[in-house]
Amino acid sequence: MKKAISIFTVAAMTVTLLAGCGSSASGSTASTAPAATSETSTVTTTSTDAASIADSAAASTNVDLSKAKVGVCIYQFSDNFMTLFRNELEKYLVSKGFSKDNIEIVDGANDQATQTNQIQNFITEGVNVLIINPVNSSSASTITDMVVKANIPLVYINREPDADEEARWKDNNWNVTYVGCDAKQSGTFQGEIIADLGMDKLDMNKNGKVDYVMIEGDPENVDAQYRTEYSVKALEDAGLAVNKLDDEVGNWDQATAQQLVANALSQYGNDVEVVFCNNDAMALGALQSIQSAGRTVGKDIYLVGVDALSEALEDVQAGTMTGTVFNDHFAQSHSAAEAAINYITGAGNDHYIGCDYVKVTADNAQEILDKVK
Ligand code: BGC
Q1: How confident is the model at residue 14 (pLDDT cuts 50, 70, 90)?
Q2: Does domain 21-181+327-362 bear CATH number 3.40.50.2300?
Q3: In the list 92, 112, 281, 311, which could disulfide-bond 135, CB 3.0-4.6 Å?
């Protein structure tokens, strides 16, 4: 994302950071949060991207990131994908000059009340910025209200709040942003991986349709909703008729998915041609049941996930998974950190910071594996 920024704007922002009022480059109000140590100085940068704006603003205004406190709320530590995300986030924040001791990452244990308490504690502590992966996206308006009232800038990650909530940030010029990828794209890529196989391979029971089982993540999460919808839509858009045999909620969890797919296979047997899983953890569970049922991926059944966990990538390479979709936790965690820096330095952010998913099949699994390993 390219932004232009002038000497005067940065100087104004720096003053803002010290004075606690004013405007920002992106049109959102500048940070009125408890500021990290900072002092005004001249800026020489004229135009650059978000990452180097933060770099130059931090350097030029002497905002001492090592003194800045970051509160990070993760919905659940046991989630495989969010573990990759949070580890990379911490590593990247440290590489940008934050002190490890000032980065506090807490486990919401998949309970909104627990997480809301943790947010309250961070507010009391006076952190400079909050990065929040909400337990329930539907609680975002309550969370936003608490955090904005405390004048702390807020970066939502991974679980996107709804359009009405995002509109409020813009309408009120609040220092609130969302960092994430477009879930519709991940669903579309899953569907395309399957559609590209062609009806000859897919329609093994010759009923003229692709008979599938869908294993969904948390149904409250837009990632689950859109992946479910857009994977099937991509098959239909490719002109393939579809038949939903089963659609179950696996809550992103491997063991749950394993059980659900075992049930579906025993109920529908060889009619199951494709298993769609909203994430790789569940696809790995599905694979265990597929193999126990004596079925062979790539031969008499097809299986796709999302995330590109390294274990899933190895399965894609080996042909034991048809494909996956890389959910780029590097890009997302780095953008979240940059957004946090931009708030701390006063550079501000757009209210939505996106990224792209990458379709993964046996053709590029090694390339993605090299990135994630
Ligand atoms: C990932 C899932 C993860 C979920 C957590 C999704 O984007 O694909 O693996 O469980 O985020 O919210």
Answers
A1: very low
A2: yes
A3: 112
